[in-house]
Each structure stands twice: as structure tokens, then as C-alpha cells.
Design brief:
The structure holds two protein chains of two kinds. Chain A is mainly β. Chain A has no helices and eleven strands. In chain A, strands 2, 4, 5, 6, 9, 10 and 11 form a seven-stranded mixed beta sheet that branches. A four-stranded antiparallel beta sheet of chain A has the order 1-3-8-7, with no helix packed on it. In chain A, strand 5 and strand 6 form a beta hairpin. The termini of chain B are far apart. Chain B has no helices and twelve strands. Chain B is mainly β. Chain B is globular. Helices cover 0% and strands 52% of the residues of chain B. Classes of the chains: A mainly beta, B mainly beta.
């Protein structure tokens, strides 16, 4: 049981290049999330998904796109990278709440630098 | 919308000192509360959570937190810190209930424990 995994772990991009970050979870979670973590700003939600084939915008969605074609995978795309997207990206997943509660499980992160 | 304030951005303690990290949230309804820890170079892990019941919650590694509803606070405590507690600590909150509710994070408190 690997939990939440992310690839790649590190990446350096030039401004204008594109890339896709892959998140995979093996816990059969319905909900998945992409966050970015910047110094002094905590974690901010980029996009999230409440099930296969559905996605929604979070707090800071501009410049990013996502897809959830399979329940276990959640992809984050940068079509034209900008230096402002230099950050550490975390994926997370959770069960949906059914009158109860849930917690989010996080992946190890992807450190992205855009030059 | 919910918001979370962590007033201590950096805390430096000696081993065996007691720890209290502040967390205040802004939301008028019922909430779920979390503390996550991020050890250097690692992903976020859940320390403890409060959903309902006893406002004093015990988590892993000797940490505890107390929910004080009247003060909108959920402070994290540990009687005696160890060098291995050096990490960044995040408080998070979401609205209680069913359906998707965004998890809002504080900006984090970086704890350094000197041996």
C-alpha cells in the first residue's frame, strides 16, 4: 500500500514550457486535491476532484489545468510555465464525508522551479 | 469563508521545553479541526484531529490540542519537546457536515528544537 505517490519529485522548466505532474493513490479515495506550498503562505488549493471525470477550481487555479480520467489518478498540467509557478506541489486524497468526517492523505511533493 | 491564523511563524526551543502553538480560525458554524506536521523534506502527516466530543484531543508522538469554541482556538501542545520534533506545523479547518468542504490551512509555524 503505497498511499499517495507523485511524479516527478523535482523538475526545472524554462518559462513557456509545459509539463504534467502525476498523482496516484491506491486507497480507493473518491476525493483528490492539488495544492501548492509557498514560503509563508501555507498550502493553497489549486484544483480538486470529487470523483472520476469531475474537477473543480480551488483557490489559485489560474495557469493550471487538471484531469481525473481514472479514479486513482489526478493530473496537474502547466501549459505555459511562469516563474510565479515555482513552488512545491502536493497532491492529496481523501474519502468523501457521509455525515461523518475525513482526513486528507498527502503525497511526498514535487519541487518545481521555473527559470 | 473560513480562515486560519497561526501567529507564531518561527519558534525555537531547547529539548525538554514545553510547546504551545497557537491556532485561531474564523468561521461561524461547526468546524472540523486538524494539525498536520511536515518534517524536513517530507510530506504532510496528520498529527491529530477534532471532529466532536471531548475538546481535548490527543494525537501521535505525545501531542495534544484543545478546542476552545468560545475563543475559536485549537492550540497545539506538547509537555516536553525533542530534537526530532523539529518540523513545520500546520493548523487546518473545514466546515463540518456532509459533502465537499474545502480544507483551509494556516501559514504554518516552523519549530526548531535545539539539542
Amino acid at each position: 500500500n503505497a498511499g499517495v505517490t507523485q511524479t516527478p519529485k523535482f523538475r526545472v522548466l524554462k518559462t513557456g514550457q509545459s509539463m504534467t505532474l502525476l498523482c496516484a493513490q491506491d486507497m480507493n479515495h473518491e476525493y483528490m486535491y492539488w495544492y501548492r506550498q509557498d514560503p509563508g503562505m501555507g498550502l493553497r488549493l489549486i484544483h480538486y476532484s470529487v470523483g472520476e471525470g469531475t474537477t473543480a477550481k480551488g483557490e489559485v487555479p489560474d495557469g493550471y489545468n487538471v484531469s481525473r480520467l481514472k479514479k486513482q489518478n489526478f493530473l496537474l498540467g502547466l501549459e505555459s510555465a511562469a516563474p510565479s509557478q515555482t513552488s512545491v506541489y502536493f497532491c492529496a486524497s481523501s474519502y468523501p464525508r457521509t455525515g461523518g468526517t475525513y482526513e486528507q492523505y498527502f503525497g511526498p511533493g514535487t519541487r518545481l522551479t521555473v527559470t | 469563508a473560513q480562515s486560519v491564523s497561526q501567529h507564531n511563524h518561527h519558534v525555537i526551543l531547547s529539548e525538554a521545553a514545553s510547546l504551545e502553538l497557537g491556532c485561531n480560525y474564523s468561521y461561524g458554524g461547526t468546524v472540523n479541526l486538524f494539525w498536520y506536521v511536515q518534517y524536513p523534506g517530507q510530506h504532510l502527516q496528520l498529527l491529530l484531529k477534532y471532529f466532536s466530543g471531548d475538546p481535548l484531543v490527543k494525537g501521535i508522538k505525545g501531542f495534544e490540542a484543545e478546542f476552545i469554541k468560545s475563543k475559536f482556538s485549537f492550540n497545539l501542545r506538547k509537555p516536553s519537546v525533542q530534537w526530532s520534533d523539529t518540523a513545520e506545523y500546520f493548523c487546518a479547518v473545514n466546515a463540518a457536515g456532509t459533502g465537499f468542504q474545502k480544507l483551509v490551512f494556516g501559514t504554518g509555524t516552523r519549530l526548531l528544537v535545539s539539542p
